[in-house]
Request: fold
Amino acid sequence: MTLLTIAATPFIANADAGIVALALPDIQRDLGMTMTSAQWVTNIYVLLVGGFQLVGGRLSDIVGRRRLFLSCLAGFTATSAACGLAPGGGLLIAARAGQAITAALLIPAAMAITITMFPDGTQRSKAIAMWGMIGGTGAIAGTCAGGVLVTQLDWRWAFFINVPIGALVFMRARRLIPYDPVRRVRAAGDLATAAACGANASDEDVPRADVPGAVMMTSGLLFLIHGLVRTADHGWNDRLTVGSFAAGVVLLVAFAFHQSRARHPLMPPAVLRSRGIVCGGLGVLLVSAATAPVIFVGSLYLQQVHQFTSHATGFMLVPVVGGVLLAGPLAGRLLGRLGPLTPYLIGCGTILAGLLVLTRITPESGYVDDILPGLALTGLGLPLVWITSEVVSTTAADERTAGMAAGVVQSAGQIGAAIGLALAITTATAHADTKMAAGTEALAALSDGIGHAFLVAAILIVLAVLNAVIGLRPRRRTRGRQLQKRTTRL
Reply:
């Protein structure tokens, strides 16, 4: 029962993402936002979650897992209510940012509680598997329920729905989650407290959260994506566009310099030197960038071109997220028998085929014949690439870097989603505007722009294939056998 209560947090977070994606067209219309500004309701969320999730794990060691979990769950619930009450686009994006930061700290705290509750290896594996399945179910539930909420009630219920669920989980968690067995060291150099707790600690061992590093990295990505999104409306010669790109580059360079000198960097050198962790993280980033926009762009196409309701659109998009239930178990079996490279490439090929099918959409395209096959292929290939990348990252890590490797993969997925969405919307808008300027009818122009967005996503999958060829191919056969044996044990 305690595990179900804790695992409700990824369920809520994944469901929220699906519901909000379906609600974006209504949000855009009711708040008078442009397409490019409306996507920041999603972009700000995934970027901040990706940037601050690396901090969450370390912060739970400093303030305590239970305390961080409960406080961030309360914060997530409150900011969800603020999102639903927002009277304008700017306030909605600001409240969404607060929701993202609390979610970024909440999920690692929940995962840390799960790990410490199940010290036995077998029990822990089962608990993590249940955690992942509940999270995947949340994505499906959000895609289905999102359409019902938006159609039958209002887009604001995409956020209000989190309030009663969050309050219920908070009350149960407060009663069920045990207190941390050891009071954590909170102040740098508080070695006496560490010794009193029975820890053999030195000043180097005192946990610290690299919040400045997270702020610099996230701010740099925000400026870069803002510049990319702005090009759709203002082109590359706009001063603010150029300024956004320049600020993003400066902040990311500052982040790299900070990491090289930080005593407790956000991304330790051991992580960056690991080919497996880097390759796995890059694989997740690329596949997320290619597939995450499918829900948003597909929803836009079905609702604006074919005039389907949000309710119907939600069920039509289930194949994109439902593939995890079908292909997820297959990924585990293929990994055990063939190693990581084969299932990764099968997944990439399946996604690529699906995206290429979707590039051919027109206003006359039928759902069953022209759209469903592309959505289904994309959904089936996604878990093959994602799960393989996670296994490669965690297999390459040792006990000191296992948590960081998991954080890198999760953050890469969120950051990739933001980059992919920005590329998709910028491409779709630019091509649609060009077509309409040439005299093409609006719906045909929008369909053509969306088709080009899927083409950009397909190019990202080609890059993911190159990542596998370079990073997943064993340097020696003995190394390949060792990795296969280790993945078999997983």
Notes: The radius of gyration is 22 Å.
